[in-house]
Amino acid sequence: MTTGTRGRDGDAAGEQVRAAVDWLAAAASDPGACRWEWERGPLGVVLLPAGRRWDVLITPGDLGLAALAVLSRLAARPGPVLAGVGEGRLGFFVPPGTAARWFGTGIRAAGPGSWIAAPHPARAPAGGRWLVLPDGRGTLNDPSVLELALHEAAAGP
Question: Positive or negative CA dihedral for 71, 75, 81, 86?
């Protein structure tokens, strides 16, 4: 796997990418095939099932970006956040089961039976990019804190 820059900062970035790859690939039914597709597939994107290790709350881009700014102030480090094409939508990774309990106007919830198009953590294919990489330890966005961030973001400046 290519990790980009070398040196102490490059090693740390490479470790973060490897941890993110391992954590995300573990959600796939075949982690090896997932890694292969990321590394050698023409798109650099894999479909991962929601509902096993995480659910995803999908927001409109503007609301999601504003909520991420608030979340970054409220949490030491936000959990994984994925941006769709042109940042038109953002996906906040939350604990499994959140999708079944989430009710919010204009916010979609992806849980069991849903699939998420996930780009390789170190690349930004045309289909989207990671705004906050998974940390590899399973840290997710706290739904209660995310809800507060969404409310504050929706209220405006």
Answer: positive
**Residue 8 in 3-state DSSP?**
helix
- Residue listed under structure tokens 């405006």: 156
Bridge partners (DSSP) listed for residue 60: 89
Q: Token pair for residue 39?
A: 């590394």
Residue 156 half-sphere exposure toward CB, CA atoms < 13 A: 0
Stated pTM of the model: 0.89
Q: What are phi and psi of 60, to 5 degrees?
A: -60, 150
Residue whose pair of structure tokens reads 């927001």 in the numeric block:
59
* Phi, psi (degrees; rounded to nearest 5) at 14: -65, -40
DSSP state of 85: G
- Single-letter amino acid code for the residue at 10: G
Token digits of residue 134: 């998974």
CB 128 within 8 A of CB 85: yes
Per-residue pLDDT of the chain (157 residues; tens, 9 = 90+): 333 334 455 577 788 899 999 999 999 999 999 999 998 888 888 999 999 999 999 999 999 999 999 999 987 889 999 998 888 899 999 999 999 999 878 899 999 999 999 999 987 766 789 999 999 999 999 999 999 999 999 998 6
